[in-house]
Structure formats: C-alpha cells, structure tokens
Amino acid sequence: MRATLLHGPGDVRFEQVPDPVIREPRNAIVRVVASCVCGSDLWHYRGATTAPSQPQRIGHEFIGVVEEVGADVSRVKAGDFVIAPFYDCDMTCPNCRNGFSTSCLESGWWGGSDHAGDAMDGGQGEYVRVPHADGSLTVVPGGTPDDALLPSLLTLSDVFLTGHHAAVSAGVSKGSTVVVVGDGAVGLSGVLAAKRLGAERIVAMSRHEPRQAVAQAFGATDILTQRGDEGVQAVKDMFGGIGPDAVLECVGTKESMDQALRSARPGGQVGFVGVPNGGPELPVRTMFRSNVGVRGGVAPVRNYVDELLPEVLSGAIEPGRVFDLTLPLSDVAAAYAAMDERRAIKSLLLPGAARP
C-alpha cells in the first residue's frame, strides 16, 4: 500500500510501505475513506519538533471501512463504516472510563507505537491497523454514509471534538460569553462548539476574511482583529471593561496563552487545547490575583464522539465546513504546503481524485 512519510522539514512524500496485518486478536484493518492534515502535523512539517532520524509515518485523523478483524473483536465487524480517534485506546481501563481515554493504560499513537511497542500506521495512508478495534472505533449506523457527510464525520476523529473539549473545559454553557483565540480549524470548531453549548456572545479573534466568514457561519457574533495589549483591551471593552466568562486557547504558543489569560474576566476560565509549541507559560501570580482558572489539554475525543455523532448525522451541526481544500491523498505534499502557507484552513484527503 501507499502512505505518507515525513522525511524532514517541509518534506512529506506518498510512498510504498508494507501492508498492515492483524498482529493481535484485538486488531482490525481499516481501509481509509478520508483523512486530513492537522494543524499539529505542521509542527513536525516545519521542523518545530525534533526531526525524524528516518522517514516517519504521519497523520492521525481518518474514517473508513473495516476490512478485517481479529478473533477477539466483537463490537465491530468487516464492512462497518467507522470513525477512529486520533489515538488508540481500549475504553476499558480506569482512565478511559473516567472520561480521559487519551491517558488509556494501553494507549498508542498513529505514526508512533502501540502499547506493545509495535509501530503504528499513520492515518494518511490507504490502510491502517487499529490495535484496539473494539475500544477505538465508533461504528457509524446505516453503513457507508453519503459523500456530503464525510467531512463532518471526519472532524469527529479530532478537530471538532478538540474545539468541543476547549469549550467544555472552559465551562461554556447557556448564556456564556466567550472569546476564541486562534482562527485555525480548531479555533473555528471552538466557535461552533460554544454556539452548540448555548453561548450568548462569541468573539472570534481573526485577521483573515475566509476564516472570519466560517466563524460567523458557525455562530460568532463578533470578529476582533487586534492582538497583544491592544487585543486584551479591545476584549475588555467589549465586555464592560471586565472580560468574557470563558476564553478558548486554540493555538499553543506563549503569545496565545498570554492573550487568553489576560482577556478572561476575574474568576473566568480558560479552556486550552493548542498543542504546546513555542513556549506557552502559566503566570501563577497573575492567575492567583485574578482567580482565572485554566483547564484543558489533549482532547479525549473518543469519550465525546457518541454524544456528537447523532447531531452530525442529522445535519444539526456541520463541522466539516472547516475543510476548504480537497485533494487526492497522492497530493498530500500540496495539502501540507497549502496549510503551511495559510492558503487553506484545513486540507481534506481522499483516496481518488479530488471532489468538489
């Protein structure tokens, strides 16, 4: 089969790799129907993280059809259309049952290694071996869905539910006032999640018109272009000199966390999901004085997907609108370049030719 490999900064290639096989009785093989490029993939692509010593599989968001299952798999079967979270988990250990499957005691990471130390396939390939099929995979009822639903279903593997985690962590509820720091796909998902949870006023911090348009379609009531001290003051002015109830930090840099912490009202809450790169810091004395809380981290999307899937299937929410570029998987290098150069919000990858 073919899959995406990262050779070094700015160098991703779609190359031949060994076909995945069932290694343990809890495994399944999934044929990928759609995958995508994540903003966190760009940290590796840009060389912001340690460069691989050898070509490394990459990609962690995918949906597809189960091709084969191991002898101990009982909840999914060949032919099922499934959503995979951006990590592997068993959904039976204490951490999974407590709502944090990202800390599964037998966790594994696509493109990394599984609980047994075996290499795991990346999500940007033609097939993927799933170590814990019964735990990780969510079966979409009704079989293979219409093509129009694929983008939104794919967001349930990571991006929309990461935005949802930011909103939940920040305590967003009916009547909340919210500011979203970051206008990438996660930030835009945070806008939609806040709207769904009943937020009354949602401010999207964005300087890019196409992203502003998506934010407004998702429920943003205001757009703010200022940053830094000017941005903090503008936020305060929008909320009576006090600030919003909740701020969603969806970038992962020192500047974005500072923006979030200084924008929230005293006693407010920051929900953070931006992958920490660029040195984000928590100024404990500032937090102590303001009583601003911080909660969040890597999103346990497998614990959220069952709640949100029916709303995607019914069309009540359309988180797939974050995808504004669709390419064949073989053109994955162009998909990365478009996001890296901010010509695309999020790139969708399909096995064959690009669809409209």
Question: Can you offer a commentary on this structure?
Answer:
The chain is built from twelve helices and 18 strands. The chain is α/β, with parallel strands linked by helices. The protein folds into two domains: 208 residues, Alpha-Beta Complex (Quinone Oxidoreductase, Chain A, domain 1), CATH 3.90.180; 138 residues, Rossmann fold, CATH 3.40.50. Strands 3, 5, 6, 9, 10, 17 and 18 form a seven-stranded mixed sheet that branches. Helix 5 packs across helix 6, helix 6 packs parallel to helix 7 and helix 8 runs parallel beside helix 9. The longest helix is centred in the last third of the chain and has 14 residues. The protein is globular.
- Low-confidence spans: pLDDT under 50, at least 5 residues? none
Share in β-strands: 15-25%
Report the count of strand segments.
18
Radius of gyration, taken over Cα atoms and rounded to an integer in Å = 20 Å
The name CATH uses for the topology of the largest domain is Quinone Oxidoreductase, Chain A, domain 1
Topology readout:
Layout lengths: L1 E7 L2 E6 L11 E9 L2 H7 L10 E2 L4 E8 L11 E4 L2 E2 L5 H4 L10 E2 L17 E4 L2 H4 L1 E2 L10 H6 L3 H11 L7 E5 L3 H12 L4 E5 L3 H10 L3 E3 L3 H11 L7 E4 L4 H10 L5 E4 L11 H7 L2 E4 L4 H14 L10 E4 L3 H9 L6 E4 L6
Parallel strand pairs: 11-12, 11-14, 12-13, 14-15, 15-16, 17-18
Antiparallel strand pairs: 1-2, 1-4, 3-5, 3-9, 3-18, 5-6, 6-10, 7-8
Helix pairs in contact: 5-6, 6-7, 8-9
Brief descriptors of the model:
single chain, 356 residues, alpha/beta, Quinone Oxidoreductase, Chain A, domain 1, 2 domains, 7-stranded mixed beta sheet, 6-stranded parallel beta sheet, 29% helix
